[in-house]
Amino acid sequence: MFDQYECDGLFDEMFIDRHTPRPHYASVASRLSAMGSEAFNRRVRMADMTFRNQGITFTVYSDTRGVEKIFPFDLIPRIIPGDEWTLIERGLTQRITALNLFCQDIYHDQRILKEGIIPPELIYGAKMFRREMFHVNVPKNIYIHICGTDLIRGKDGKYYVLEDNGRTPSGVSYVLENRSVMKRVFPALFSAYKVRAIEDYPYNLLQTLKYVAPQHAQDNPTIAILTPGIYNSAYFEHSFLARQMGVELVEGRDLIVENSFVYMRTTAGLRRVDVIYRRLDDDFLDPLCFRHDSALGVAGLMNAYRMGNVALVNAVGTGVADDKAIYPFVPDMIKFYMGQEAIIPNVPTYICARPDDMKYTLENLDKLVVKATNESGGYGMLMGHQSTKAEQDAFAVKIKEDPRGFIAQPVVELSQHPSLIGDAFEGRRIDLRPYILYGEKPIIMPGGLTRVALRRGSLVVNSSQGGGSKDTWVLDEEDAPVASPLPEGTETLVTT
Amino acid sequence: MSQLGTTNAFNLNAPARPMLARDADSMYWMSRYVERAEHISRVLLVNSNVLTDVGDLTPHLQQKQWQSILTIFRLNELKPSDKPVGQQVVQYMTFNEENPNSLLNCILRARENARSIRENISAEMWENLNTLYWSIVSDDARARFEDSSDTFYRAIMSGSMLFQALTDQTLAHDQRWHFTQLAKYLERIDVTSRVIETKFTILRSAEAMLEAPIRNIHWMAVLRSCCSIEAYRKAYVGDMDPMRVASFLILRRDFPRSIRYAVSKAHDAMAAIRRDVSPGVIDAAERVLGRLDAQLEYAEMSEILLEGLPAYLQKMQTSIDDAAIEVQKAYFLH
Lengths: 496, 334
Prior knowledge:
The complex is a heterodimer of chains A (about 500) and B (about 325). Chain A is α+β, with helices and mostly antiparallel strands and about 500 residues long. Chain A has helices spanning about 25-55, 80-105, 110-115, 120-125, 170-185, 185-190, 200-210, 235-245, 280-285, 300-305, 330-340, 355-365, 390-400; strands spanning about 15, 20, 55-60, 65-70, 75-80, 145-155, 160-165, 225, 250, 255-260, 260-265, 270-275, 275-280, 310-315, 350, 370, 380-385, 405-410, 415-420, 425-435, 435-440, 440-445, 450-455, 465-475. Chain A has a five-stranded mixed beta sheet. In chain A, strands 7-6-21-22 form a four-stranded antiparallel beta sheet. Chain A has a four-stranded parallel beta sheet with strand order 9-8-13-14, with helices on one face. In chain A, helix 1 packs across helix 5 (about 170-185) and helix 2 crosses helix 11. Chain A is globular. Chain A starts with 14 loop residues before the first strand and ends in a 22-residue tail after the last strand. In chain B, helix 1 (about 20-55) runs antiparallel to helix 7. At the A-B interface, helix 8, strand 9, strand 11 and strand 12 of A face helix 1, helix 4, helix 5 and helix 12 of B.
């Protein structure tokens, strides 16, 4: 099945060259080759059927109604050796700590602006900067309780941070469901490795939520997940997490604020809610404070929040930390707040708000990836090397109109991993979104969501753009040896 | 000290967790639609079969038989068309997207409601309902239906019954479960009373024209439509008497498909919910069902016939509607 496999000059997660699998993949490679494509495809169908019958789906807004789809599941696991993971874990712990210190600083003393580390105009120009949060003390000074930081590997095999998702990162339910389906369809393969368990994530999430409960409810807080409703693309996940933790799943219309406390409407009248894990953007939370036309939120919620009567997770205003124009400064934050060098580097980034960077970006539109700073999910992006002249011109106009709205990065040739395409394996680009919880202490789920760009040659892995996912195995330390995967310096990054 | 060491850790009588009003609403409708889908399947299946069995029925009576299905499910008459009325009704009741009470829409809504309370029901219930949903929306559904509508309807019926069984066996019998029971039995009372009412009206008017064997087939079909033929035969050893059929379906105490039984169960569920929410105060919904329950407890068939069967059943349907409205007011609209 691997006969025709090509590494294409990229970093391949599984193979050193077309005949030699990396040590930690040797067992997978031999078992899959022995299995043959027919048996493999049977398992693919079994997995698809399981996903469909369990309703593990997401909604795509391609037309007015929205279509429920299965998130394509790629059955070959992505394997990360234990020592490689240890480094990633250290890097992510460092990063989430710095991002939280940054939020606390930005909404209080703003030392980082006063000392000239970050230009103030970038902060005040951020759509997600919330003046309403200025001098508001949030429980335990934690802003980003749940973070999904996207990692990629370049041609050099080193890990880089592509972006942080510090508002309402999604996808963790697929990680857990992928694992459970994987165990069902590939039990033998799974038990051939010592894979670190991820099943305690819902428990850890619940502890994280309980940790920030208001004083009055410390013993037995009522916790709810706030969802925009069943038509939201991530609804499956909201419901999944509520089920796994045994907490309430509420919509805005189920909640009401009275005397600055939040209550839910039950069959027996109103019941107080103490912690809300909201899966709703700031904009929609409270029509009295943010968007007046939002019917998804709860009038008066911000007031209850500011009084400390209810905890919101993540805090309001964290969008300032995962803004794409602020991203280039994260290594500076780490140095500023923690006196450390970033363990996992960023991808080099041009900030169009800076005249020099904008000039460079406009001159190199055919080589760069341009991203809108206030978009996510792969929307509002220009892939320079794959774009037409007309598309580039259109972007040039947009950039000149609103320089603050764009950043540019060199094209990173993401690492590839074999996927079964038809009857044979072909390399497809992947990334990794680990999930970080920050409560009493940071807890990082071993692994995360490996997303696959299933279209040949595509570098876009987002599910809204035709991406799939893989189960991600982090091995126990002693399971396989590998050299340091982290770069010496960003200059080694190879780009096209 | 670990939590398990404290006296309260094993408090098995801890008060049930309150339930979101919206979730109660969805729980109720999920259950009603699943029950309705089962009735629709059965009524369509039985009607097709009986018309095959009796062969050359007058077009007028055939027309009436098919129209009665629309009446049972509170739908307006269809516009005249070139197609045979049977085919037209079957299509309209099975796959039609505009018909709010088509099989397709019932399953769709049951599943949509279930999806919005996925965390309140069990994985088994959800998977069962979701599988049922995919079986009716999948690409090959219509082809399978053309191959054998009989098999198709039977699969929906057993899917629905499996759902009821899973509801009983995988859900705690707390407020959530009581809402499913209330909904299921209210729906059953509603449909059963309508089946009896419409079929009796048609058959009584045509009785003179029908020969005895044919007449029996029709009465058997009424029992079949209510899933009651076998239980009836055991009770009356095969004797098809219209008044016995009616009294069996309305007053039989120990049979889950009778109105008497369903009313008593609906009343129980309602009382359990009310006790949970406001102990000591009987509310309007419970009052309506309690009265109906008591009335059936002491009812006699001769009295019902004196009042007139259709009038009696219509009164019952009004009570059921009232109860449903009161439930909504008291529990869903907080």
